[in-house]
Design goal:
188 residues, mainly alpha, 0% strand
Length: 188
Amino acid sequence: MNPVSILLLGFAMSTDAFAAAIGKGAAMTRPRLSQALRAGAIFGVIEAITPVLGWLLGKGAARYIEAWDHWIAFGLLLALGLHMVWAGMQPDSGEPVDEKKQHGIVGLAITGLSTSIDALAVGVGLAFVDTPIAVVALVIGLCTFGMVTLGIMLGHMLSAMVGRRAEIIGGIILVGVGAVILYEHLSA
């Protein structure tokens, strides 16, 4: 993967966390920078760890499916991207939430974990291509940290305008990254 693909992947992985952060920021009366930084750090660390875990799982299976690895990476990214687009088009549930549970460390960690499942699957896919997983994980973590911090702070202003569209854009980017991986391997 080239540096641009890694950066795009980092932003794509952070869009669902960004969308969740906008929702959290909109639900907070006046989010403080310290709250936004804490949420960004929690989400960023979780989002950086999960692709490494997926990569380790994928490496264990790599020798068995080496001839198909680029197709698997493309398929996973395509499926995740399309799922993100689909999820971004679904209406919100509108259910009331307990704000202390949702904005506390445990609530943030649970939300961060739920938005990082896609990064775990991306890590599995990346195990089949020549990718520096430490760099990818760092970029994903930093992008998520920045996007979540920004999302919390801008939540009130952006919740009505952007909201779920961020997840749709992230899904489209994932499909594009998958296509680049497939193209690089088929043209090499």
